[in-house]
Amino acid sequence: MSRNIKFIQGNEVCVEAALYAGLDFFAGYPITPSTEIAEHLAQRLPQIGGRFIQMEDEIASICAIIGASLTGHKVMTATSGPGFSLMQEALGYAVMTEIPCVIVNVQRGGPSTGLPTQVSQGDVMQARWGTHGDHAIVALTASTHQDVFDVTVDAFNIAETYRTPVILLFDEVVGHMRERVEIPEPGELELVQRLRTSVKGGVDYHPYLPREDGRLPMSDFGALHRYNVTGLYHDMWGFPTDNPKIVQGLLRHLIDKINNHVNQITRYKELYIEDADCVLISYGSAARSARHTVINRRARGEKLGLLELQSLWPFPEDLVREKCARAKHIVVVEMNMGQIARRVKMAVDTPDKVFLANRIDGSFISEPDIKQVLRIIRGKGV
Amino acid sequence: MSRNIKFIQGNEVCVEAALYAGLDFFAGYPITPSTEIAEHLAQRLPQIGGRFIQMEDEIASICAIIGASLTGHKVMTATSGPGFSLMQEALGYAVMTEIPCVIVNVQRGGPSTGLPTQVSQGDVMQARWGTHGDHAIVALTASTHQDVFDVTVDAFNIAETYRTPVILLFDEVVGHMRERVEIPEPGELELVQRLRTSVKGGVDYHPYLPREDGRLPMSDFGALHRYNVTGLYHDMWGFPTDNPKIVQGLLRHLIDKINNHVNQITRYKELYIEDADCVLISYGSAARSARHTVINRRARGEKLGLLELQSLWPFPEDLVREKCARAKHIVVVEMNMGQIARRVKMAVDTPDKVFLANRIDGSFISEPDIKQVLRIIRGKGV
Amino acid sequence: MSRNIKFIQGNEVCVEAALYAGLDFFAGYPITPSTEIAEHLAQRLPQIGGRFIQMEDEIASICAIIGASLTGHKVMTATSGPGFSLMQEALGYAVMTEIPCVIVNVQRGGPSTGLPTQVSQGDVMQARWGTHGDHAIVALTASTHQDVFDVTVDAFNIAETYRTPVILLFDEVVGHMRERVEIPEPGELELVQRLRTSVKGGVDYHPYLPREDGRLPMSDFGALHRYNVTGLYHDMWGFPTDNPKIVQGLLRHLIDKINNHVNQITRYKELYIEDADCVLISYGSAARSARHTVINRRARGEKLGLLELQSLWPFPEDLVREKCARAKHIVVVEMNMGQIARRVKMAVDTPDKVFLANRIDGSFISEPDIKQVLRIIRGKGV
Amino acid sequence: MSRNIKFIQGNEVCVEAALYAGLDFFAGYPITPSTEIAEHLAQRLPQIGGRFIQMEDEIASICAIIGASLTGHKVMTATSGPGFSLMQEALGYAVMTEIPCVIVNVQRGGPSTGLPTQVSQGDVMQARWGTHGDHAIVALTASTHQDVFDVTVDAFNIAETYRTPVILLFDEVVGHMRERVEIPEPGELELVQRLRTSVKGGVDYHPYLPREDGRLPMSDFGALHRYNVTGLYHDMWGFPTDNPKIVQGLLRHLIDKINNHVNQITRYKELYIEDADCVLISYGSAARSARHTVINRRARGEKLGLLELQSLWPFPEDLVREKCARAKHIVVVEMNMGQIARRVKMAVDTPDKVFLANRIDGSFISEPDIKQVLRIIRGKGV
User: With an 8 Å Cβ cutoff, are B341 and C377 in contact?
Assistant: First the structure.
């Protein structure tokens, strides 16, 4: 049986996976290092009867996909740091109105225009806290092209399941690197379709009344039912309210629907964790170097293990605590000032055993960088 | 001697303090609950020869003040959550280009348009992490009108001292409440003036070469020197570079100039901390209820103390650890899902003794809410 | 084989179990929410040749069963808070004279007439300390109808084994709720019969001389032997004495015969205790909500465990300490101001980790009440 | 100036103090060792126009004084253990209906009729928990006749201030011993008079609506206003309710009005506490031996101190913790199985350093008993 194997950039893998997951509407504004996503979709979407729109900026882009999603489409936009900052207001609107959408941030060096063509993982905390107000969010990442495919499909499934924006937090190395990827056959990966209401026209439809399982059936906007969609706190009809009980209930719903499903949302890979004295925790392209280090040092008898996080938010706190329970050292490998390292410190029982191996200069972190940190924390000096 | 005493809203106090500090340029777009700041400045600025511009939106507003600051003015804008989200990209630009400016966020309930007229403290983490990329930031807050005056003056001083945007994170209760405030006489509070370069025209001016003390003399843009200002990583002349050493040096400079001065930037008040079994940590309007609780429970013999934070970022980690060292319980009182509580957990030696007394329904947190949590953490139930 | 399955109220289960255990004399005065016990026994006892007497009040009721027990019958009375208060003097008499009897208190809201038809667990400490003077007591409870059956049989067995009043501390929810119960076949549960003296008539019988195993054989009053029964301190013949040595010996005997058999008397159930980070301790109907919470939160990955106490007095101190040894939090779930929570604090090594999840308003405590406390003690606020 | 000095029994001191405090109604039933209180009042009350009634039993006695108090009188009854057990139901009624009254329990050995003429302090826990349901209570005690006078006056003052039954927990030694006492002049001790409502007839009087300071003005029953008095949970008009909010509010009011004033209610004496390595805690007649021991051992250079509690309930937890903070050993001296010792363990930071020096045989505890315990806990053996 011939398999559909490609040797392509990560950005193109993301495109193929999005189409596989059912994407049929994309709006975006080009920005390095995410531009190839828009480029490829500009070609691919019309071929399958989908819509591609280049918008005037990133605010317009996210607003367009929110609207399209509400009318029943599976939607995505893609950008990098500066564009992602511009999207923060509308991202909050999608959170509040519970509209499924996928936002790709192929990270480059920040802040500001920063380092357009260099790698960074500096937007991890922004992905969590970039919009105002308490809220929960889902952010996925990947280190290999096969994983880029899988988490992209996952992103669409999670967006539909929980009616939430999902952020795909890739980085310049993953986006631009070419690597082998096998495109699954149709049906090979499970797809979650839009949950539509079964309420008939002319009957009371409560757009914001969750079912018992917490899911919220939608009605394509402009079709059978008329209803209100607002970024204000709203009741089960979608109409604004400042009733404290409803306000608290809605905020808790928005947070709990994500955070209470952390186990279902969490994706990770592990390597030699069981007997590891030292656990490396990493994600995205940095995890490639971490994995490399673990395999090489194991060959020399060092009890290293790897926990590769593929979902960063909601943070898999219990998983991290559990996997690190017997480690003497935990080293977080990432390309920022320790955004996930701080989160790991909060998760584990002994924050003092958490160390950071990082790079913040636009260069890709590599095995020697990590080995250097391992020496120092073992008291072996430079 | 007659004193200048007023009974005004917190938003108006902020205006008076900004003018006292030397504000002469304001650009903004009205949004509840910050609107009174713009309203009052629209009247007051022209009276003193300053400029007030109502812009078409919040992006334009922050861009206008950044530009005005670069030409030598003391500048401010004011907004609330949704507008603050829109400002995130340009805020990062001000961070990267090191342009002094003050951004007021009078917080209301979020996410999205949320609860325009109700109180919240939900934007604390966004203030820290709203823009993309690693960076440091200064955010101040206050619980009384006298403190609003003082921290507003401080905000301008810090912005000039460290060439950084400073966020004034007020909230709806502080902004709209009327309270007695005594306007200091001119000269009573120290003011930091713009540090201008002494480099003469026609001579090499290095706009991004810090002095030995870390401060960076400015030259009014459009005046004596021509130089480049960019959001890209840049060298001492302000020109773009991706040289890893310069990139790392600039990022560390941007972060260290703030975080290494945490002691100079930190503002706080304390009450009965010395012998407190239970330390309440609070800020903004929530601290009013915390203070009330401490005073009332002390009268009943309970050893409560209060640490009121007036600077949230950079987070005064050492201060919090020290003040909480002998406390059996630490209760963070805030109107969000525990944004500062999580930060306190990271600061103290025993995270398990940190609890959260919060409200997230748009209602002002009050003494009974705090007492309820105190009862439960003392094992006393309802 | 067909089983005897019923769908009845807890009060009726108590009746069936008492009859199963050999009850043949009941005296009582009706009071909500215990009345159904008297009602059903008024029908059932005559059917089996037993005696049912409705007395003029609760004092007469307990005095009648004490007398009947002394003549050789298995006896019970049933009441609620106010009636239980009235029984305190005679209860002490039964303690001092070591007369087996079972007293059911189907708790309602107190103090005073309180809340006749609402649930409470407010009489736990009264059960221990309601009568004057140092003494020990046995009090059992249950959360399901099958357990009501079992502990009721146990109560009769313990009363006979240790010659002591045994209190069945049920509550309104358990008493009035209908639930499936399977009545065991005769012989399925072990029954303890009255230990009668083998001393012949005309020979010296020492009614208050314990055997080597501490048990005290009885002689049906009015039958073979004449002897003295008094509430005063007494010697082995039952005659009053104030000899300090005998006084101290008798008081220690009364206490030790119960407290030294705490392991034999203790009944409990546990769920997921082994690896629980947080142990809920509960009893009576409250344990239903605690169990529900544990099961639901386990499904979400939270390491909750349940220790359900079915004997409250003598308090199973060692059991509680052992089961809670590795828990980070212990939450006592009960419907009072923390009567058992205080006792748990005394039992465990770290009283500070004991919290109270309670309701005191006559409403049944439910999962959301418990979850709220769990949130707060984990520092997560509302 | 001649002083009014007497050499009388403690029971008679109690009578004189009650009259001094304004007692004008007593109902009782004689029981050793409290009988002298009734005897003396039978003579003294008619002399001052008060009423003395001998009732048919203790239930009638407490009900009579509750009714008389409601009509505006200062009232008292006196009993010992068995009678106190009989009073438990009506005591709860007085708690619930907030009717000021004083109940004297001159303790003898229990349980049951126990040791009528011998000393004990076995009713301490019953005083706290004898009636059913959660509630708070005030119980005072004394070791010298001068203190008996003072705490008796206090009892009436507290009863009126907080509208609560107050228990005077004396013991056989204090009651029967003769000792010098100086009766204060009128006006020398402050007296609290009944707080009567100022609401006029025909106007809405809310008998159960506390003032802002928590006090509840009364209206003499049968006089100006008609209102309902019930042992059921009731609203501000005194009418029954099972509204959960009102139920919880009332229960918390009943408990908080006492427990929140623990500092005002607490009475104690101390001796050499400041530098004590070993603190004796005692109360009632046992404190006489404890004081004797401290004075004698201090003369030999042993750093003993005494904390004599004169109020047992609400338990002065903070006081005990504070006074014991620097002690290496804490020895509770009492004549029971450690009822207050257990409470002290809960109050202090290190329960392991709390020991019990007691007697339970009807004999008065003396210095040699205490010295023996001191030797053992210092590792010196018997």
Answer: no
Report how far apart the first and last C-alpha atoms of chain B are (Å, whole number): 52
- pLDDT at position A202 is 84
Nearest residue in B to C360, CA atom: B382
Q: Identify the band that residue A382 occupies on the pLDDT scale cut at 50, 70 and 90.
A: low
Q: D133: left (phi > 0), else alpha (psi -120 to 50), else beta?
A: left
pTM, 2 dp: 0.85
CA angle D209, D215, D221 (to 5 degrees): 65
- Joined together, the tokens standing for residue D7 give 């050499």
Which tokens belong to A250?
């809605």
As a whole number of angstroms, the distance between CA B84 and CA B58 comes to: 8
DSSP β-bridge partners for residue D101: D165
Q: Any residues with CB less than 8 A from the CB of C160 and at least 6 apart, and which?
A: C74, C100, C192, C193, C194, C195
How many CA atoms within 13 Å lie on the side-chain side of C291? 14
| pLDDT over 60 at A1, yes or no | no
Q: Are B332 and C382 in contact (CB under 8 A)?
A: no
**How far apart are the C-alpha atoms of D179 and D161, rounded to whole Å?**
30
- Most A CBs within 10 Å, among B87, B112, B313, B366, to test the A interface: B112
Q: Where are the beta strands (DSSP E) in chain D?
A: 4-9, 25-28, 51-54, 75-79, 101-107, 138-140, 165-171, 178-183, 268-271, 278-282, 304-309, 311-313, 329-334, 354-358
Contact of D263 with chain B, judged by CB distance below 8 Å, is answered with yes
Tell whether C382 lies on the interface with A, counting CB pairs under 8 A.
yes
D337 chain-C contacts, CB cut-off 8 A? 134, 251, 255
Residue B219 near residue B229, CB atoms below 8 Å: no
Alpha-carbon dihedral sign for residues B138, B144, B147, B152: positive
Q: Identify which of B147, B160, B144 has the alpha carbon closest to the alpha carbon of residue B22.
A: B160
**Cβ(D108)–Cβ(D117) under 8 Å?**
yes
Put simply, the answer to whether B132 touches A339 (Cβ < 8 Å) is no
Pick among D134, D318, D320, D348 to test the B interface (most B CBs inside 10 A): D318
Within 8 A by CB and 6+ apart from D116, the residues are C232, D31, D32, D33, D80, D108, D109
- Beta pairing partners, B27: B53
The helix/strand count (H/E) of chain C reads as 14, 14
Chain B residues with CB inside 8 Å of A248's CB?
360-361
Pick out chain B residues at pLDDT < 70: 1
* Per-state percent for chain D, helix, strand, coil, to nearest 5: 40, 20, 40
Burial annotation B133-171 (CB, 10 A radius, 16+ → b, else e): bbbbbbbbbbbbbbbbbbbbbbbbbbbbbbbbbbbbbbb
* pLDDT score, position D373: 87
Domains of chain A as residue ranges with CATH: 4-183 (3.40.50.970), 268-377 (3.40.50.920)
C interface mutation test: which of A318, A321, A346, A348 has the most C CBs within 10 A? A318
Q: Do C300 and A248 touch (CB under 8 A)?
A: no
Which positions ≥6 away from D33 have C-beta within 8 Å? D11, D80, D106, D108, D116, D117, D172, D175, D176
Q: Residue A372's pLDDT band (boundaries 50, 70, 90)?
A: confident
What are residue C294's DSSP bridge partners? none
Q: Rounded to 5 degrees, what are φ and ψ at C93?
A: -65, -45
Contact: C131, D132; criterion CB under 8 Å: no
Encode D196-217: b = buried (16+ Cβ within 10 Å), e = exposed: ebeeeeeeebbbbeeeeeeebb
